[in-house]
Amino acid sequence: MEYRTLGTSGLKVSTLCLGAMTFGEADDKSFMHQVSCDEATSQAIMNRALDQGINFIDTADVYGQDGLSERVVGRWMAQEKARDRVVLATKFRFRMGDGPNASGASRYRIVRTVEDSLRRLGTDRIDLYQIHMQDFDTPEEETLRALDDLVRQGKVLYLGASNYAAYRLTDSLWTSRTQHLEHFVSLQMQYSLVVRDLEREHVPLCRKFGLGIIPWSPLAAGFLSGKYQKGQTAPQGSRMEKWKERYAGFDKDRNWKILDAVRAVAKEHGTTETAVSLAWLLQKPAVSSVIFGARTLGQLDENLKADGLRLTEGQMKSLDDASAYELGYPYDFLSRIQPRW
């Protein structure tokens, strides 16, 4: 397994990060109902991932319901005595409970969300604590000061952002620098061959300021796994079988063109579409680690095939060309005058 520093921090993480969103059987109140796995399977997946060199696990308080994913990960770490063998990441921001202060990133809320996550995870510190999305109602300085306090208290070691607009992330980094507060070392965002919008602003920003990008949904909700065929319904048991509207959203000529290119490269390497899609991301600038999810040991093994897979310059170009997207103004104008992408 390859390890990289998370951005310009000194923290070393495996290039493949195990996402825990599917861990634990969620009831019908959760968006993960019928697309998750039971606790025994979750523990088996974490054990094998650890054995294969993955040291990075990402979860969130909102995954499952009532912190289900965090509790499953916490019980596994205690049972396997694995706490000091993993880099543990979790997130806060979305609604957990009732009332006007049960969501958001205010100081009032952060001092509670961290304690709740620590209790569910059964640990004394969170290695990477990430805000799940920027909060329009809370000044960034308030959020950063609260997070800075957690680092100084030793409850949190590193800070990360997720689902931030580029302008807000730049403002956050400036606030941290000028106010002498802890700053974000990573940015977790949706990024895949299908969704490349991040390359307009966020990738250059992260390269300039040293943030490690952690792509989520690298397989575009499983679309890039190779199990889907143009003109056919989603396979039985797949997530897209339940999320029919989302599957319909993927039914575009560009996306099938991307999948054809992925299949061609996979054939050249004698590997899977999953491995190629992950490897493409791992060869992109500023990417530190790629989050993947697994509901079965078989799915875990499919993702592990990306470890060590190197695509040639020609293969990268073929995938870039197939997944080309409209830059939009002013990016297309800038690119015509002085190409950077």
**Strand-pairing-aware structural class:** alpha/beta
Could you say what the CATH topology is called?
TIM Barrel
CATH class wording:
Alpha Beta
Q: Major sheet: size, sense and barrel closure? A: 8 strands, parallel
Task: Please count the beta strands (DSSP E, at least 2 residues each).
Answer: 10
User: Which stretches are poorly predicted, pLDDT < 50 over at least 5 residues?
Assistant: none
Number of helices: 13
- Spatial order of strands in the largest sheet: 9-8-7-6-5-4-3-10
CATH homologous superfamily grouping: NADP-dependent oxidoreductase domain
Describe this entry's structure for a reader.
Helix 1 packs across helix 2 (68-80) and helix 9 (253-269) packs across helix 10 (273-282). The mean pLDDT is 94. The chain is globular, with a radius of gyration of 20 Å. With 341 residues, it is an alpha/beta fold. The chain has helices at residues 39-51, 68-80, 107-121, 140-153, 166-179, 202-209, 239-242, 244-250, 253-269, 273-282, 297-304, 313-322, 331-337; strands at residues 3-5, 12-14, 16-19, 56-58, 87-92, 126-131, 156-162, 184-190, 212-216, 290-293. The relative contact order is 0.12. It has a single domain, classed as Alpha-Beta Barrel (TIM Barrel), CATH 3.20.20. The two termini are 29 Å apart. Helix 3 links the parallel strand 5 (87-92) and strand 6 (126-131). The strands form 2 sheets. It has an 8-stranded parallel beta sheet.
